[in-house]
Amino acid sequence: MNKSPLLSTLLLTVWLTSACEESIPPAPSAEAPAPEVPTAAPALTASNCAVLTTAQVSASGDDGAGSVAANSQDDDLTTRWSGLGKGAWLTMDLGGSQALTGVAVTWHQGATRQNHFTLSTSEDGVSFTQAYAGTSALSAAVQTYAFGAQRSGRYVRITVNGNTVNDWASIIETRACGVQPVSSVDSGPALPRLPYLQSVGPTSALVAFRSGVSCTPYVRFGPGSDLSRTATATAAGWRHAVKLENLSPGQTYSYVVEACGSTAGVRQFRTASGAGTSRVHFTAMGDFGTGGSLQSQVLTRMAQGSNAGELILALGDNAYSSGTEQEFQDRMFKPMAALLRQVPLFAAPGNHEYVTDQGQPYLDNLYMPANNPAGSERYYSFDWGPVHFVSLDSNCAIGLASSDRCTLAAQKSWVKQDLAATSRPWKVVFFHHPPWSSGEHGSQLAMRREFAPIFEQAGVDLVLTGHDHNYERSKPMKGDAVAASGTQGIPYVVVGSGGATLRAFQGSQPAWTAYRNNTDAGYLSVVVEGGTLSAQFINPSGTVRDSFSLTKTVPATSAFLVSPASSVETPPGPVDDPNHPPASLRFGQELPPADRPEDVADLME
User: Fold this and answer.
1) pTM score, two decimals?
2) Beta strands in 179-215 (DSSP E)
3) In which element (H, E) is residue 11 found?
């Protein structure tokens, strides 16, 4: 029997089923399986593509000769997927919904033919939405095709409508590009000071931190869980404050710090609410910078859930006992690290900060707004939703500052104009030395006489202070007495209970005191909602020891939408010589807690 016709038929069948992509001679076997090569190519990488892992891959078909869909994920540039016909498709299943930014593809024979294709995404693998359409470049290298905007999807499909040579779809490797899930765990060498949020406003924020070596770090950030934007430090060094800009008011943002081989795990914060927002939750405490047991108890309670609110007001004596660089490091930033990574802190200086060079380390470590004529961070104001906040430097007012640093006259002139200019319906002022107190130091009469008339004229609603190591709330005060019935007064609240050793009151409770407590450490939690301000003094066990509320008629939102928010522009801070770390950064052995009464004694006074 002559077997030649049968052999010819078999050979023709094999050629048609496994190698018919190249129908134009002389290369009928151009799509035949390539010979095996013992060494595989390295994993696919592509510019502008954070490669996502493909859980499974499928296709509309293949060439029947081994060029299957799985080859597109094997990191082997000698294998490929091939499917016949215009409209042949390959689908990557990512195993779950992901934030997608594009697709990277290495085309078979990409240097000699261009592929016409579309990219589409899907959540369910059935209904696909087109995200990109185009023609590949003549290149054998991997090509990245970016979507116009980030989108969510579990499935990514490449549909090929032929190429400039034939109607085959042939892909060597492909991957979906997206936003890689970022760990909340820090990695690499530990940063000497973890990120802390400063001068957060409605459209900008500062992320401050310190690195172990000199470098120019950057911060990746974005709304929600997105981290596609980047802000880079303006200079190399050890002390950094990277500004995030073009933010939206009242929105949650994620951020990751990349510094000198260190990566700080992802955290989130919220920008300041705009003028049209009627609600804000903030907390306040003073005299907390001990690194000790009471401070730890208060911070543990504040760190639970959303207890700390949207922002924290620090009422002075933030770093005992002298406000040195190492005291700020060991007694403020280390114990507060977890909290300050997610909640911005706005501070006022205490008398203990003034022990060292009139508060210079305080100014070097904190990045506060500088919107007074002197461009000083010692006193400033800012807006958050319906509240206008004013921070004063009471040390300056009582004579602890030299005239080249701060003067009473300049501060009074500024605060009078600042309070008169705001159109926010609520006004809260905070500083260190209390105009009204029955604690160890008693009332600071200079602060009362110089500033209380300004507060009363401007309609200030609440004044928060520290200095005395206790909690005390006055009745609404006006002048030197309790406000008469039917007249508006201002409650003055001492919250010097944040962590320093508590102190006895000097006598019986005065008639002007509404409530006082020297047995509980704790913080003040304040919620402003429309025309009501509600406040609670909360101890470490979560018990509310005092509560009060203020009510007022507030104008319609439109009445204060036109008022510009106070500037949160901040001086750049100290600039390091990138080749020589400042002596102040060479910390010695970690300080013990300032838990004893003598550790927090007010020697200057």
Assistant:
1) 0.76
2) 193-198, 205-215
3) helix 4-18
